[in-house]
Amino acid sequence: MARTSLKTLASVLFLATAIFSMFQARKDTTYTVMVLTALTAGMLGDIFLSVDGLVIEKYRNYFMVIGAICFGVGHILFSAIFLSLVDSFEYFLLFIVGAIPVFLFIMSKIAKIDFGKFTTPVYIYSLMLSLMLITGINLYIQNGTVGSLMILIAAILFTISDSCLVLKEFAYNGTHKPLIYIVLITYYVAQNLFALTVMLSA
Fold it and tell me: Both ends of the chain: CA-CA distance in Å?
């Protein structure tokens, strides 16, 4: 219960950061609304993934899937946001979309990870994550602003967080403390960076 409450509070705080940034910027833009929506999806994902210990065993997988879907929606929204801020795309970045699932496959073999029935969802999610990463990289290449740099750092941290999350959950059954800290720190820093860009409108 304490874990769920703390994660929910931390998620509410990054949403509050975005709202505070909006008032500081004194403008309510489409960018702001979309970022708030994406962060809300992330908050819901946090809640669904953190309550798995509070529900009976047969329903836990449903909560995990719903949580992953919420995060996936957030990644798609962020990708759409980043694409809307530029006029062109560096197509060489598309190799990353294939590289991340390949890296995930190699990592699973080296670490002897069996995703089981989550194999397809994990790889679909990795594609969504890689899409957010490449659109963030593209935004920085095209714009080179402070806001786009914050987005790039946030996208990289999010990728690190989710990669470590896969290791933590499937290789160490969620019990590897260093990975737990890495996942939480990189994730919440990433979300707060996304939230702060509202002040700059990227």
Answer: 36
| Confidence label for 6 from pLDDT (cuts 50, 70 and 90) | confident
DSSP for 44-61 reads HHHHHHHTGGGS-HHHHH
Say what angle helices 2-25 and 30-50 make with each other, to 10 degrees: 170
Please choose, from the candidates 184, 172, 168, 159, the residue with its C-alpha nearest in 3D space to the C-alpha of residue 101: 159
Q: For residues 8 and 24, give the distance between their C-alpha atoms in angstroms, rounded to a whole number.
A: 24
* pLDDT tens string 177-193: 899 899 999 999 999 99
Identify the CA nearest to 31 among candidates 128, 130, 125, 145. 145
> What pLDDT, on the 0 to 100 scale, is given for residue 31?
92
- CA 142 from centroid of its chain's CA atoms: 22
- Closest by CA to 31, choosing from 70, 68, 80, 65, is 80
pTM of the model: 0.89
CB 194 within 8 A of CB 151: yes
Q: Which of 168, 175, 72, 55 shows the shortest CA–CA distance to 120?
A: 72
Cα dihedral across residues 123, 101, 128, 169: positive or negative:
positive
For 92-116, write each residue's pLDDT tens digit: 999 998 888 888 889 888 888 888 8
